[in-house]
Amino acid sequence: MGKLKDFENQRAGRLIEFNGQKYKLISVPYNLSLDEINFLKQISNLFDKKDFFINAGEDRIEIYLNRINLDEFIKKTELILEGNERRKALFEKILEGIDSIKSYGLKSGQRVYVDYDKERKVKSRKEKERERGKYFYALNHNFENKNNDLPKEFENKIICGDSEKILKAFPDNCIDLIFTSPPYNFGLDYENHRDAMSWENYFEKLFKIFDECIRVLKFGGKDSCKCSALVFGLYSDSSYNFQFFHE
Ligand SMILES: C[S@@+](CC[C@H](N)C(=O)[O-])C[C@H]1O[C@@H](n2cnc3c(N)ncnc32)[C@H](O)[C@@H]1O
């Protein structure tokens, strides 16, 4: 065995470091036969030790998990079960062990058990806010902060049509949450929408609809827009977009 470092009190599984690599360690009590120990070695050898390995003792199995593609794991392992019922039961136990760790990230089809949430943490939040500015609302906004009720005729309805026209019938500040997924202008084949406009026309229409969204959104309400990184980053002139949101 190599060098092992134990980190106590990890929320989701026991985090350890082995030979300089971090793993979640799952320990499953199990009385293993020689055939089973051999079977576990075969499974373990299917993967890069940096990602995943199994250490089989006489009375327990230790599963070291850094990252794993579970579908691939199941497919590869099924090939060496050889219809053996004891191997099958053992395999189930291992799957159960892996599945007991509920906290993981997903990357290229792999479950990532270690440090998957690291890059998302914001460090020195206050300092960064100071550097880039802090906007809860657009710059120098003059939004009305009195909210209105949603007219009864719009309650519990699915209304189909052009959002720009439909939203015009709504009063100001009457919607709590807007969730929108506008077209990306990639050239997709929609029945009633031409998804290949000039960028100028595309943004002109989009911003007219966003203007309506902002108008009908309650003061303190939330607007969530699912949009393409390409639309808002690469293809378009991004200053155009940022200008809109700041205004
Ligand atoms: C990116 S897709 C969103 C698909 C949607 N999330 C779904 O699961 O069906 C964009 C959709 O917006 C629709 N669309 C385009 N212009 C619109 C407009 N002015 N008002 C309302 N919907 C519009 C398109 O027809 C398309 O269905």
Automatic annotation (TrEMBL):
Any single GO BP term: methylation
Keywords: DNA-binding, Methyltransferase, Restriction system, S-adenosyl-L-methionine, Transferase
InterPro entries linked to this entry: DNA_methylase_N4/N6, MeTrfase_CN4_CS, SAM-dependent_MTases_sf
Pfam family, one: N6_N4_Mtase
Domain DNA methylase N-4/N-6, residue spans: 175-221
Molecular function per GO: DNA binding; N-methyltransferase activity; site-specific DNA-methyltransferase (cytosine-N4-specific) activity
EC number, as in UniProt: 2.1.1.113
Catalytic activity, as annotated: a 2'-deoxycytidine in DNA + S-adenosyl-L-methionine = an N(4)-methyl-2'-deoxycytidine in DNA + S-adenosyl-L-homocysteine + H(+)
EC class name: transferase
Keyword DNA-binding: yes
Family, as annotated: Belongs to the N(4)/N(6)-methyltransferase family. N(4) subfamily.
Name of this chain's protein: site-specific DNA-methyltransferase (cytosine-N(4)-specific)
Source species of the chain: Kryptobacter tengchongensis
